[in-house]
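Input record (one chain):
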Amino acid sequence: MILALLFYTALALSLFLIVNWIGRGSVAIGYNSMELLPTSDDAPALNVSIRVATPIVFTIIAATLLYEIGWGIFVAKIYIVAIIYVVFRWIFNIAYGRRLLVNWPKEIVLGFVIIALNWIVTQHVLKNRTSLLPDHSNFISELWVLICLYLYNIINRIHIGEGQGIQRKYKHILSKANRFLKIYGGLISANTNNDKLKAIILAVMIYEDFNRPRIARGLENVIGKLGMAKTFGLMQVNSSQPISDWESVELGIKKIIAAWEREKLVIHSYNAEYNTSVGIISDYNADNDYISEVTEIADIVESRLYRGTKDKLSSAEQAPAKVPELPAIQNNATGLVIETINSAGYTYVSVAPEKEGLDWLAMPESSVSVGDRIEYPVTSPLTNFNSKTLNRTFSKIMFIPSVKRI
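The corresponding structure, as predicted from the sequence alone:
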């Protein structure tokens, strides 16, 4: 019995890794993996089918192989693999600090559905056989295959609102921010009184903690003694030897403040606050996805915990005399607004300029409307900019301070 349980556990862990691997590879076609920032469920049938069908397919394939290698004795109770898989998935999300991100009613229902279906398949299809390889006389009716494909396609086109998911993820972010303030608030305040900088520091903590929760950091400290890890602690700072979360926060704050001292003096031709924030975060980690996500987390933290702050990140923005004069006409364009989207304190505008083509603009939240004719500054666009709150990637987008209706 113990040997069988160990064998089923090994299969369950393999299933867990396979489901995660399939999920990561299916993000581009609509699968929702566990994310920190809110997105909508645009492909519900795809998401449910991957979560529910994959364990069944895995069980059938595993049972087939067991029969073929003469280990059919393990097939009679192979549904235990699904039980271990579901329980392990719940424990994993709790251990990784994702309790508030999980839709537990849905997760529990899916878990019981997975277990029940695997039990049914085991009892009525898999056990008491000598082989599970296909027989041409037992193929499912082509009619039912077409019906299932039709229903899958229809259900997958139903858009499920993102409200509850957004609230869970905002709740997770704010819960983490308040927890870190309770532990490290004094240390943060001892190093800076700037509320916007505090929001960035907390955003880095939240993002790093999501990707390296306490259990993973503990493992890093163990393997770090063998020289197999290079970053440690809550803020994942580089170190030649393992360090505590508190030490990593001290070093991480100093690194962020050092970057701010440099970046706040840089003169930007537009949106100095945004560009200064990006400069600080990119100094910490230059990965585009990292910059985008930490920026949006910082916006959420600032809007909820430091709402109405008068602090600024950029000193240069407060000294316009140092900003070089730019030719007004040569650097401006005009066009017709054809789409607007408000998200996370920004307004995204699609504009058809007088020249051929289409421009996407982003600016602090504005009341621009579809049909408005606007004048806007032409700036160097960001390429492949990903907005997690919109669940959308812009091939080219210009960040600007404002537009002028004409």
